[in-house]
Amino acid sequence: MRYCSRCGAQMRSEARFCDQCGHSLSGPGTAKKVRSNYHPSESQLPSAPVTSRASPMIATILALGPGLFGIMGLGHIYVRSLAKGLVLLVVGAVLGLFTWVLIIDLFFLSPLDMGPDGAGLIGAAVLFSLIFFPLWLWQAYDAYLIAKTTQPSPDTIIPPPYY
């Protein structure tokens, strides 16, 4: 029993062309290109790593810009890391809301009349800021790394589909 060198299908011993893909089974000097209606299934195509065409710069801008105001995770959603992006979106919204409300209240609404609750307000603002701002920077850097590592390298050759 013979096998096609192109698709691996079993061949009759007297066949000159593959019944599956139409590949010429004659010697190397007499090979002819034969068009057929053969369209290989997904399992027969050569496997190439799935890569994202996401730009690291756009991922970083989407993470930094809206993320500063509590809308974190957009860079992750852009690079198709949906679960992490949605978690960051929820956590960032809660942390961002508390952080910015406390900062605005501390510096703009009540700087003169602190009263007895002033120390608690300052402590809460510092605590939320120490969590929010590092998380904001980390999620931007992480979105950048994900976009950068999913880029195909310049020497990657993805073969065209067989027709």
Task: Please render the helix and strand layout as text.
Elements: E1 2-3, E2 10-11, H1 56-64, H2 74-78, H3 82-109, H4 118-149
Antiparallel strand pairs: 1-2
- How far is the first residue's CA from the last residue's CA? 25 Å
Number of helices: 4
β-strand percent reads under 5%
Structural class estimated from helices and strands: mainly alpha
Give helix and strand order, one letter per element, not per position.
Answer: EEHHHH
Q: Indicate the percent of residues in helices.
A: 40-55%
Shape: rod-shaped
- Low-confidence spans: pLDDT under 50, at least 5 residues? 29-35
Major sheet details: 2 strands, antiparallel
Q: What Rg, in angstroms, do the CA atoms define?
A: 29 Å
The number of domains = 2
Return the average pLDDT rounded to an integer. 77
Number of strands: 2
The spatial strand order of the largest sheet comes to 1-2
How would you characterize this protein structure?
The chain has 163 residues and is mostly helical. It folds into two domains: 1-47, no CATH class; 56-149. Helix content is 45%, strand content 2%. It is built from four helices and two strands, in the order E-E-H-H-H-H. It has a two-stranded antiparallel ribbon with strand order 1-2. Strand 1 (2-3) and strand 2 (10-11) form a beta hairpin. Helix 1 (56-64) runs antiparallel to helix 4 (118-149) and helix 3 packs antiparallel against helix 4 (118-149). The longest helix has 32 residues, at 118-149. It is rod-shaped and about 100 Å long.
